[in-house]
């Protein structure tokens, strides 16, 4: 379910409060990871499971003007866009660790309030769970829209931000997905462009 629409959706603090209110506090909290959260979660979790999210797909279609690029030469990071499905990982945060872990995760993912956090049903071999996922609206100014192959090549060759290059970020995500048995063909095709 989406967060409370009554809150200011571009105010990270209000969005965090809404997420905390929708989490019942009586159970552990699940987070859906589909890109860098898989290989660098930065929080202590009690369990991780392979998961499939239906209705959204992983796409390297979000501008990054700080972490993987600059305002002059934006890089790219992944977003969850509507349509299709996405294989990733769900992490279980014990309820007694949520109050400390979620604000830190929010600081990382929601600094600019670009994502639209939503509670979404994720399917695992052990059953389905409702997990917090960071989605991207196609109406967001950070959504790239359609990029040409030449645009991807230029970004992979040149874009670099405080955490490194877009190329490195995409490769780290691809390598971790492969190690988990997830074959993202769209990402593989994009990485081939970087090598041409």
Please state the overall shape, judged from the principal axes of the Cα atoms.
globular
| C-alpha end-to-end distance | 42 Å
Count of strand segments: 7
Rg (CA only): 16 Å
The biggest beta sheet reads:
5 strands, mixed, barrel
Question: Number of helical segments?
Answer: 6
What oligomeric state do the depicted chains represent? single chain
Which whole number gives the mean pLDDT? 92
Q: Indicate the CATH topology.
A: Hypothetical upf0131 protein ytfp
In CATH, what is the class? Answer: Alpha Beta
Structure write-up:
This protein has 196 residues and is of the alpha+beta class. It has a single domain, classed as Gamma-glutamyl cyclotransferase-like (Hypothetical upf0131 protein ytfp). It has six helices and seven strands; from the N terminus they run αβαββαββαββαα. It is globular and about 50 Å long.
Q: What labels describe this entry?
A:
two-stranded antiparallel ribbon, 196 residues, five-stranded mixed β-barrel, alpha+beta, 6 helices, disordered N terminus, Hypothetical upf0131 protein ytfp
């Amino acid at each position: 379910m989406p967060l409370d629409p009554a809150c200011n959706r571009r105010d990270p603090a209000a969005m965090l409060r809404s997420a905390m209110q929708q989490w019942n506090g009586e159970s552990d909290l699940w987070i859906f990871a589909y890109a860098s959260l898989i290989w660098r979660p930065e929080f202590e979790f009690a369990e991780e499971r392979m998961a499939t999210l239906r209705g959204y797909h992983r796409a390297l279609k979000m501008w990054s003007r700080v972490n993987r690029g600059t305002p002059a030469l934006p890089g790219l990071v992944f977003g969850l866009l509507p349509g299709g499905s996405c294989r990733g990982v769900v992490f279980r945060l014990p309820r007694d660790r949520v109050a400390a872990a979620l604000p830190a995760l929010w600081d990382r993912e929601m600094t600019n309030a670009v994502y639209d956090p939503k509670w979404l049903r994720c399917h695992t071999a052990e059953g389905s769970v409702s997990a917090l996922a960071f989605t991207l609206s196609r109406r967001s100014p950070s959504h790239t829209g359609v990029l040409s192959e030449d645009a991807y090549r230029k970004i992979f060759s040149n874009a670099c931000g405080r955490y490194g290059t877009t190329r490195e970020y995409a490769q780290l995500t691809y390598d971790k997905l492969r190690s988990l048995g997830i074959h993202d063909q769209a990402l593989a095709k994009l990485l081939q462009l970087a090598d041409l």
